[in-house]
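User: Structure tokens for both sequences below?

Assistant:
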Amino acid sequence: QVQLVESGGGSAQVGGSLRLSCAASGYTYRMGWFRQGPGKEREGLASISMGGGATYYGDTVKGRVTISRDNAKNSVFLQMNSLEAEDSAMYYCAAATRSMGWPLAKYGYTYWGQGTQVTVSS
């Protein structure tokens, strides 16, 4: 079992920035960030391989977010810039212990955090 603990959500202004953090309790092969707004599907935003560091980004956030890792702390981070009102959602950290298909597909992840709310307002 891998437990994930997220932090860093909250409120921000349009055009502002937020940094989300996620700490894992055990081995992870890949970690990712997803979000889900009210009445919407869970959307893959970014993923990173904990070994080689390969990253993937979703089209809706590409160029505005950066995923990074700290292997010593078994943690990943999501730096979000140029925030838009449409970025308001619950953000989830996810972990996979082996490679399972497309890195931004939710089915590829076994473990999920409890979520952290991000609210962007003008």
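Moving on to the next sequence.
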Amino acid sequence: QVQLVESGGGLVQPGGSLRLSCAASGSIFSIDAMGWYRQAPGKERELVADITRGGSTNYADSVKGRFTISISKDNAKSTVYLQMSSLKPEDTAVYYCNCKGTVVGIIKHPEVWGQGTLVTVSS
């Protein structure tokens, strides 16, 4: 069973910074890619950024130059981070951690989602 535990959301003023973390655990052998999506009220969920096992990154145009995704791994778990800077009110959303291609034993889970963490950018 794969578990994703997110942290780091909260209230921040415009122009401020936040760092989101998502720890994936559960006897994971490998993960093809980890990333962050967000969903604002009344809008569809959208990709914010992702990073592959090989280190390739992909960002939404709206966050390029402001957000940075990174990953760390130890024997027990993999953690993906999203460093968010120069935050804008339009960045307000629930941010979801996502893992693609998670291998646990002989099972490959196509997609696993975290529970979401709220980021509010407001003065």
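User: Anything stand out in the second?

Assistant: The chain has a mean pLDDT of 94.
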